[in-house]
Amino acid sequence: MIMFKLICIGCKSEYSLNEIIYNCRKCNDLLEVQIDLEEVKDLINRRDLSLKPLSVWKYSELIPIFDKNRIVTINEGGTKLHKCSNLAEELGIKKLYVKNEGENPTGSFKDRGMTVGVTKAREFDSKKVACASTGNTAASLSAYAAKAGLKSIILIPHGAVAIGKLAQSIIYGAKVIAIKGNFDKALSIIIEASKSLGLYLLNSINPFRIEGQKTAAFEVCEQLDWHAPDRLIIPVGNAANIAAYWKGFKEFYELGFIENLPTMIGIQACGASPIVQAIKEKRDFIKPVDNPNTVATAIRIGNPASWKKAINAIKESKGTAESVTDEEILSAQRLLARKEGLFVEPASASSIAGLKKLIELGSIDKDEEIVCVATGHGLKDPDSAIKFYQEPIVIEPNFEILKEVIKG
Ligand code: F0G
User: Fold this and answer.
1) Helix axes 215-223 and 241-254, enclosed angle (nearest 10)
2) Are the C-beta atoms of residues 369 and 229 closer than 8 Å to each other?
3) Pocket test for ligand 1, best of 99, 137, 214, 373 (most atoms within 8 A of CB)
4) Cα(74)–Cα(83) distance, rounded to whole angstroms?
5) Which atom of ligand 1 lies nearest, measured to the CA of 243?
6) CA distance 217 to 221
7) What are 312-370's pLDDT values in tens digits?
8) Is the CB of 375 within 6 Å of ligand 1?
9) Is residue 345 within 6 Å of ligand 1 at its C-beta?
10) 297 C-alpha to center of ligand 1: Å?
């Protein structure tokens, strides 16, 4: 029996996995699942893992679930690590990979956390699950709740969620409520609502979400033939995913499955970059941004809930954080599509934009092995692709005209 417990990242108070709790009762800080890795060492090894196809649940010994028969899954994980030689050449580096999380069932990395989170909801016998979201968490939660036969309640910032994501939540049958306010406000209200109305909260302050999301780091290590990259560059919004990857890398390192750890580089949009500002000003705390704004709506977040975990990950890994403009994000999105055939949503392209900026600043050596995380599929936000690039050329249905247009 593997030992799991919940630990407060601030005062280190311990809690059992059997209670529904999101914040420390003593100091209100975030909680994190801690695993007795010595026990896990007896149960899994690299050779056995190598024989199984990639997926979230191949790492089930490292995921705090009690009853494997009740797992809620839509076959998440196992996304490709694309070797991007064309893009690497364009940017002047040698080894570049993109972990394409848009290949998950609902088109984003959120599915890794949601398969675990909704399984926990089932273990707790919750009937209703809820989240606030910029769109992807909502799409994912709605799908997993549907699969589990649970009701899902989604709070989104009105007018600020990409159309594809909204369509997903609707078709999966969620109750979608738009507030006249931003994501940060939506999150604070849904936290309150979940406490008083008994909804099981599946935002990433729920520590079980991280336990699923960390499997992306396990996969990257396996896909690189059992080592971590020199750097992992990742978009940061509410700030849990960067912490999830770091936790995954550390667990594989402590298990002796890899011999190196990457430096973690968090990328935010200029208009929503409280963590970048904290890192640059060498602060241990963030100053929330009041009216966050960026074309990358997924990461339009001014007061990220998991900022402390993100700053810890960046500091422990001797990494850094950088911000990129909307123009840089859109140009990186286009570059990735046109050099590698990968269409990712604007927030996802911020990791590529960040890489480009860091290379231009001379902060990256051309021999380093780099993994950029692309967090969500481009088709989630088709409007921005059309709006910011090019409308189709409209012509009369006539061969001569067509010929001229093709030549031109
Ligand atoms: N990329 C995409 C496509 C996202 O949807 C998100 C977060 C992030 C990056 C940032 O990840 O929050 O863990 O730092 N989307 C959340 C949502 C906020 O509601 O879908 P993070």
Assistant:
1) 60
2) yes
3) 137
4) 26
5) 13
6) 6
7) 999 999 999 999 999 999 999 999 999 999 999 999 999 999 999 999 999 999 999 99
8) yes
9) yes
10) 9
Cβ-Cβ contacts under 8 Å for 98 (sequence gap 6 or more): 81, 82, 84, 87, 336, 340, 342, 352, 371, 372, 373, 374
Lookup result for tokens 């995954």: 248
Rounded Cα gap, residues 120 and 141, in angstroms: 13
Ligand 1 near 223 CB (within 6 A): no
- The strand ranges marked E within 319-368 are 320-324
Whether the pTM exceeds 0.90: the reply is yes
Give the distance (Å) from ligand 1 centre to CA of residue 402: 42
Nearest of 305, 307, 301 to residue 183 by alpha carbon: 301
What are the distances in angstroms from CA 179 to CA 160, 272, 320? 10, 19, 34
pLDDT band at 1 (very low <50, low <70, confident <90, very high): low
Question: Which CATH architecture best describes the domain 81-107+209-388?
Answer: 3-Layer(aba) Sandwich (3.40)
Please report, for the chain, the start and end positions of each structural domain, with discontinuous segments joined by +: 81-107+209-388
Q: How far is the CA of 401 from the centre of ligand 1 (A)?
A: 45
Q: Whose CA is nearest to atom 15 of ligand 1?
A: 298
| pLDDT tens per residue across span 23-65 | 999 999 999 999 999 999 999 999 999 999 999 999 999 999 9
Residue 137 Cβ contacting ligand 1 at under 6 Å: yes
Secondary structure (3-state) at 317: coil
Ligand 1 centroid distance, CA of 238 (Å): 6
- Give the pair of three-digit tokens for residue 214: 């960390």
Atom of ligand 1 nearest to the CA of 135: 20
pLDDT digits (tens, 9 = 90+) for 200-246: 999 999 999 999 999 999 999 999 999 999 999 999 999 999 999 99
